[in-house]
Amino acid sequence: MNLLLTNDDGIHAPGLRVLAAELAALGPVTLVAPDRDQSATSHSLTLHRPLRIHRHGEREFSIDGTPTDCVLIAFHGLLDPKPDLVVSGINHGPNMGEDVFYSGTVAAAIEGSMQGVPAVAASLATHEAADFLAPARFVRRLVEAISRRGLDGKQVLNVNLPHRTWETVQGVRFTRLGTRVYSDTLIEKTDPRGRAYYWIGGQDPVWASHDGTDFHAVEHGFVSVTPLSLDLTDYRAVVEMEQWDLRP
């Protein structure tokens, strides 16, 4: 199995390094990651400037762009043959609920699926200093399961791992995306020239603790695995709106 490993925390992130070492037991692993932190870049592409690629080793590259840039360049410029699976992470911080739409980690996995291969996005649900070894071993077991059982090329598994000693992890739950209670704020300040500038800030996210969601699972000590589909169509709304009798 040829594996492409990327992230949004950057090429030197500890979660990436530990996961690369674990996945090496399953086949060739190529690292293609941003040269710096690209958190919350979502699915953005760099279109208005050239991208620079820096080689760190035989199968290790950094790119001065977004996680999506990294996956695209890996598929269309760096790797031959193409990878069988894309793994993004391990992110230092959770990616649950609606936050998947902001996440560079999840976006990189989605780009892998758009290129026609299954993908995994993995996140450790803490911003504190952490040991990534046990989470990386779980991701390796998940990749082994995908190799044995198969996964559709248009599917993404979004994995969130609880931050606790691994002996106290309660198990694995297959979940749906939760709902975030937003408390983001816009902080206005003034620079030395008297001009206003703004920080997008806010407190740590608060989640509605509904049974069956990714947050509920992680909150209770379970690993959350959420299968994601690229089709965002609201099919029920399509049927309802057909009754609107709109005319051009």
From TrEMBL:
<feature type="binding site">
    <location>
        <position position="39"/>
    </location>
    <ligand>
        <name>a divalent metal cation</name>
    </ligand>
</feature>
<keyword id="KW-0378">Hydrolase</keyword>
<dbReference type="GO" id="GO:0008253">
    <property type="term" value="F:5'-nucleotidase activity"/>
</dbReference>
<dbReference type="GO" id="GO:0004309">
    <property type="term" value="F:exopolyphosphatase activity"/>
</dbReference>
<comment type="function">
    <text>Nucleotidase that shows phosphatase activity on nucleoside 5'-monophosphates.</text>
</comment>
<dbReference type="GO" id="GO:0008254">
    <property type="term" value="F:3'-nucleotidase activity"/>
</dbReference>
<protein>
    <recommendedName>
        <fullName>5'-nucleotidase SurE</fullName>
        <ecNumber>3.1.3.5</ecNumber>
    </recommendedName>
</protein>
<comment type="similarity">
    <text>Belongs to the SurE nucleotidase family.</text>
</comment>
<keyword id="KW-0963">Cytoplasm</keyword>
<dbReference type="Pfam" id="PF01975">
    <property type="entry name" value="SurE"/>
</dbReference>
<dbReference type="InterPro" id="IPR030048">
    <property type="entry name" value="SurE"/>
</dbReference>
<dbReference type="InterPro" id="IPR036523">
    <property type="entry name" value="SurE-like_sf"/>
</dbReference>
<dbReference type="GO" id="GO:0046872">
    <property type="term" value="F:metal ion binding"/>
</dbReference>
<feature type="binding site">
    <location>
        <position position="9"/>
    </location>
    <ligand>
        <name>a divalent metal cation</name>
    </ligand>
</feature>
<keyword id="KW-0479">Metal-binding</keyword>
<dbReference type="GO" id="GO:0000166">
    <property type="term" value="F:nucleotide binding"/>
</dbReference>
<feature type="binding site">
    <location>
        <position position="91"/>
    </location>
    <ligand>
        <name>a divalent metal cation</name>
    </ligand>
</feature>
<feature type="domain" description="Survival protein SurE-like phosphatase/nucleotidase">
    <location>
        <begin position="4"/>
        <end position="183"/>
    </location>
</feature>
<keyword id="KW-0547">Nucleotide-binding</keyword>
<feature type="binding site">
    <location>
        <position position="8"/>
    </location>
    <ligand>
        <name>a divalent metal cation</name>
    </ligand>
</feature>
<dbReference type="GO" id="GO:0005737">
    <property type="term" value="C:cytoplasm"/>
</dbReference>
<dbReference type="InterPro" id="IPR002828">
    <property type="entry name" value="SurE-like_Pase/nucleotidase"/>
</dbReference>
